[in-house]
Amino acid sequence: KDIRFDYSNADVKRHEIENLKAQVRQLHHMLHKKTGAGNDFLGWLDYPKDYDQEEFQRIFTVAERIRKNSDAFIIIGIGGSYAGARAAIEMVGHTFHNLLPKEKRNAPEIYFVGHNLSATYYQHLMEVIENKDVSICVISKSGTTTEPAIAFRLLRAYMEGKYGEAEANQRIYAVTDGQKGALRQLAREKRYETFVIPDDIGGRYSVLTAVGLLPIAVAGIDIRKIMAGAKDAWEAYHGEDLEGNPCYQYAVLRNILYSKGKVIEVLASYEPSLHYLAEWWKQLYGESEGKDGKGIFPASVEFSTDLHSMGQLLQDGRRNIFETVLRIEKPKEDIRIVEDEDNVDGLNFLSLKSLNEVNDHAFEGTLLAHTDGGVPNLVISIPEATPYYFGKLVYFFEKACAMSGYILGVNPFDQPGVEDYKKNMFALLGKPGYEALGKSLRERLYK
Ligand code: PA5
């Protein structure tokens, strides 16, 4: 029972893989000896085996407190300070977590904010939490990111109005840089309980730190098992040899396909609970590889829903796509299709069949159809959607991403391109210091 990677439907020849073997070995050493680009952001690499146990214990204790005294838990963050926690809660938790009766949920309702600038979203959230006891966790490594900072300003005011400042401060938790940033300063002043994001771990590689673990633990998921999975992944994917390392094989295969013009990778899943895992994956790969005029465009689809929409394009559109299917071998639940005497719908050939079996055949049929249609298919299978395999899968993708970025020849740990929109937004909003840019942008926009 393990994560498996199958590239037998990728239409790639043996020698194409062999050709990259030596390069992978060399890049593996570059990664582990920390001599490559972005080497000051490699804290995630050995983290699963040497993380701060004391802080880990504190996450437990705090999560327990929040679970006891809160009906709703609001997580503020964006990008790497958001996607991983949501991915875990959705993948491992109950599909309708917030709608379950409280005694069944055994955790507060979970809400995410700070990942958009929609007034409607905030207003609606405020309506939902109105009569509930609330705790808040604000997550920002820089402590200055605009979207979560605005969210925090709004929710801080709400909390102080609702509980008075003293109690509000006890219901607010911050995950941020150990020393710098506006959030750290505010946390000091208000004496919020805080957790530290290590300097050498970038946002999109941070889900196994307090960034992900605190919200995940509050949602009632066993974070010890997540870290056990990540630690086993560290061990399992530690080898330099391509043959024995599925994580490097995935990195190699996607680069071979990219070099043949497959510039879009579609992550496909057959379980809706993987929706946010795919969102997290898109950020990881898109932000890590999309630079210097290069990069695979990471997209995602959910089957069978999207077989009735994007399925057409996948089967029959421009042949610049490859597909990576993320499979859960044994889904959490199964149900049997009922027998119907009248059989008006003609579905009695499915009577008493398991719905998972139907879903599996949808996967197999689609795999062959898409492969026949010229879309190479890679398959990553995980045995179960458990905390353990979430931890293992996260590390699998992170390490594969580092290797893949190095094969591509980029720095997988920076994100210079995300600054440009911010500069323009600040200039248009009249932030002091941006006057000249603001003037020139307005001339272009409103001429
Ligand atoms: O991967 C990244 O570095 C980004 O996606 C950041 O996580 C995101 O911009 C949020 O940054 P911060 O945690 O500083 O608010």
UniProtKB/TrEMBL annotation:
Give the reactions, separated by semicolons, that this protein catalyses: alpha-D-glucose 6-phosphate = beta-D-fructose 6-phosphate
Pfam families, per this entry? PGI (PF00342)
Query: Is the Lipid metabolism keyword given for this protein?
Result: no
Q: Which GO terms describe its molecular function?
A: carbohydrate derivative binding; glucose-6-phosphate isomerase activity; monosaccharide binding
Pathway field of the UniProt record reads: Carbohydrate biosynthesis; gluconeogenesis; Carbohydrate degradation; glycolysis; D-glyceraldehyde 3-phosphate and glycerone phosphate from D-glucose: step 2/4
Give Gene Ontology CC terms.
Answer: cytosol
Q: Per the UniProt record, which EC number(s) apply here? A: 5.3.1.9
- Which residues does the Swiss-Prot or TrEMBL record annotate as the active site? E287, K422
- Localized where? Cytoplasm
Asked if Oxidoreductase is a keyword of the record, the answer is: no
Query: What UniProt keywords apply to this chain's record, in alphabetical order?
Result: Cytoplasm, Gluconeogenesis, Glycolysis, Isomerase
Q: Which GO terms are recorded in the biological process aspect for this UniProt protein?
A: gluconeogenesis; glucose 6-phosphate metabolic process; glycolytic process
Biological role stated in the UniProt entry = Catalyzes the reversible isomerization of glucose-6-phosphate to fructose-6-phosphate.
Q: Which family does it belong to?
A: Belongs to the GPI family.
- What's this protein's name? Glucose-6-phosphate isomerase
Q: Gene encoding this polypeptide? A: pgiB
